[in-house]
Design brief:
By secondary structure, the protein is an alpha+beta fold. It is about 30% helix and about 30% strand.
């Protein structure tokens, strides 16, 4: 059976305007639309790094008792929690990190580096 939703717990948690802490949530699998439509969002066009904020606001279906997970909610996450959700997004959507071999232009030594996916 295909699992389309995954429960998670944030390392720190989201603190809402009333001071309530929200740590548990649910993320669903991303659809093609989840990765395509945010590219039309003016905030993403003006600032490509904002893509992950819009992506996560689409696929995180529940975060504690927050009524709606919006980009503003994702913006309010602590860095550790954002990184946690990015990693979860990549894992549940089968986006293993891609590695490439690169050569240092200064010393000529080769090493592997990871490329980031939309969720990372």
């Amino acid at each position: 059976m295909l699992v389309t939703e995954v429960d998670f717990e944030l390392p720190k948690g989201y603190v809402d305007n009333a001071g309530n802490l929200h740590r548990d949530g649910v993320m669903r699998l991303a659809t093609a639309a989840d990765e395509i439509y945010p590219l039309r969002d003016p905030r993403v066009r003006d600032w490509p790094a904002y893509l992950i904020v819009v992506l996560l606001s689409r696929v995180v279906t529940r975060l504690g008792r927050v009524p709606e997970v919006t980009p503003a909610v994702i913006e309010g996450l602590y860095s550790e929690d954002l990184a946690h959700l990015q990693g979860l997004y990549n894992r549940v959507n089968g986006l293993a990190p891609a590695t490439v071999l690169v050569t240092c232009p200064h010393c000529g030594q080769e090493h592997e580096t990871e490329l980031s996916w939309p969720g990372g």
